[in-house]
Specification:
With 246 residues, the protein is an alpha/beta fold. Helix content is 48%, strand content 12%. The protein has helices spanning 18-41, 58-66, 93-96, 118-121, 127-146, 160-172, 182-189, 191-205, 220-241; strands spanning 46-52, 74-78, 105-109, 150-157, 212-216. Strands 2-3-1-4-5 form a 5-stranded parallel beta sheet, sandwiched between helices.
Length: 246
Amino acid sequence: MMKKRLEEVDLTQAIELEKDYKKQLKQQQLQLLRFQQLLYQHHIPALFVLEGWDAAGKGGAIKRISQRLDPRGFQVHPISAPSQEEQKHHYLYRFWKKLPAYGQLALFDRSWYGRVLVERVEGFASEAEWKRAFEEINQFEKMLHDDGYIVGKLWFHISKDEQLTRFKAREENPFKRWKITDEDWRNREKWEMYEQAANDMFEQTDTSYAPWTIIEGNDKPFARVKTLKVINEWLEHHLKEKGFLE
């Protein structure tokens, strides 16, 4: 039987020395700043979707991504449950208003993939609705791509044991206790269901114009540097393709 994508991830990858981490982080941050300026100059919009397990490191990665950027051309959109008003519309409706303007860069901390992840697992969407969503999402992202958007998607992956360690650490830290909720513990009990949903998502929505990259997250420094590398490589690829980089 073919392995599912998450089963193939090597979670032992790490950056051992702090000096190496700081050096690589700074290099990647400065590169991203350079690319942000090129996006602005050439009116190219870019967005990156960040999905993954609870406590997998999305917040820490976002902090490092934004650290050296010009805030005037950068937005982060934390996505939670839809409001009552938003529930009166198609599920993609609320994301249209958050798309970056031409020349700007945006990160979605969770996204329209909620339809095929949490809404699927928790029963907020019917089987017909979440199965139909794969093609709807592909068409949505293809439309953005055809309009000149750069679109990339990252999944932050950690082991179940590592998640438990981080949950307990959050409960013990008064500055991070707000990050852990009863819902996080409930989601953890459905790990296998979410894992299946994620693997189905990769299979159905990993496209040439909006690819998925898995971030090995057990080691936070490694995950943060890889996140920046992936974003930079994707921006560089598209900027070269459009003729704005040698």
